[in-house]
Specification:
Blueprint (H helix, E strand, L loop, with lengths): L7 E2 L6 E2 L8 H6 L3 E5 L10 E5 L13 H5 L2 H13 L6 H23 L3 H22 L3 H29 L2 H5 L5 H15 L4 E3 L2 E3 L2 H15 L20 H8 L4 H9 L14 H6 L1 H18 L21
Antiparallel strand pairs: 1-2, 3-4, 5-6
Helix pairs in contact: 4-13, 5-6, 6-8
């Protein structure tokens, strides 16, 4: 419910309630997942009008995400990454080379994913139609050996496609535990994904005291807010006069500035959750683990370069501004 907190007010103003609602079925939400109830201002009546609207705001390009399960189980994935990674010709510091290679690989993976996995739903429908045709032929006149083998191959392909569909859905629904327990209930994943998106979706915000749903106005307001928040202020903001800092021993200092070992870097990566992505480029720790033989030299070079230079190349520590509602829409 968006707009007002309450939909009914007693004339004397002593009682108010939210008793007016729009009732829809699950099938309705499957067809129109972006429905929202908007409460309008009341006039003479003691009830506020409630309007049901389909609201879908396109906030422009979505960030890149690794599709762990379906990509890693595809035999072509590693070969694709290995070929592309070896062909990238980038010059510069170790950390800059690693960043630029990931940037190029991300663009190529988007194309590869679209060619291989984007039409997974359409492929599944075509396979099912062909299997149904063969079933009807089998009932009418029987099968020869070639047709029986074709149907067997189609069933194997359909199982692979269905696994990809469910794996993608489970990752979008953020229900990893169900996948680990070998539960691939597609309806459950669909519902979880829609519920999570509906809960996190931003429909608008108050701009200068007035409710606004114009995405360009909202984006500009957010940009100005954070530019002001992180702008450099003139003058000294913090004084450290007479502040005594704790110091470390020379032995501890030598340990801190020592070079990183390969086992130390590997242990740090393996101790992290595979589904977590440390930076906005979308490459998670699962990708680093799965493709370790391919990118290992790049990772080592990047870490050692940062340890010696103590700075990031431009764009390495970029971030997204993500507005997530912390309370229910009122």
């Amino acid at each position: 419910m968006v707009g007002r907190k309450f939909t009914w007010y007693k004339p004397n103003g002593m009682v108010k309630s939210r008793i007016d609602r729009v009732l829809v079925s699950k099938e309705w939400l499957d067809a129109w997942p972006h429905c929202q109830q908007f409460v309008l201002n009341r006039s003479i009546s003691d009830h506020c009008a409630v309007v049901l609207k389909e609201v879908s705001v396109d906030w422009d390009p979505r960030p890149f995400r690794c599709l762990d399960v379906c990509w890693h189980r595809d035999s072509r994935f590693k070969d694709f990454v290995r070929t592309k990674w070896a062909n990238y010709d980038v010059l510069g510091r170790g950390i800059y080379i690693f960043k630029e290679k990931l940037k190029k690989l991300k663009a190529d993976l988007k194309v590869w994913n679209k060619e291989v996995f984007e039409d997974v739903n359409l492929t599944g429908e075509e396979l099912q139609k062909r299997i149904n045709v063969l079933d009807i032929q089998d009932e009418d006149r029987g099968f020869d050996e070639s047709e029986r083998e074709e149907r067997r191959t189609l069933l194997v392909d359909l199982n692979k496609v269905m696994f990809k569909q469910k794996a993608i859905m489970s990752q979008k629904a953020r229900q990893k535990k169900w996948l680990k327990q070998r539960d691939l209930n597609t309806k459950f994943f669909h519902s979880s994904m829609k519920w999570r998106r509906a809960r996190n979706e931003l429909h608008g915000m108050f701009v200068d005291g007035r409710w606004c749903e114009d995405k360009e106005v909202i984006k500009d307001k957010v940009r100005v807010f954070f530019e002001d928040r992180f702008a450099r202020k003139e003058g000294c903001q913090v004084r450290l006069d007479n502040v005594r800092f704790n110091s470390i021993s020379e032995e501890d200092n030598e340990l801190l500035i020592a070079d990183f070992f390969e086992d130390e870097i590997r242990g740090a990566i393996w101790n992290c959750n595979s589904s977590k992505s440390p930076v906005p480029d979308g490459f998670n720790f699962g990708f680093l683990k799965h493709c370790r033989e391919i990118i290992k030299l790049g990772v080592l070079s990047a870490v050692k370069d940062f340890a010696s230079k103590s700075n990031w190349p431009r764009g390495s520590n970029a971030s997204f501004l993500c507005l997530v509602p912390k309370v229910e829409n009122l």
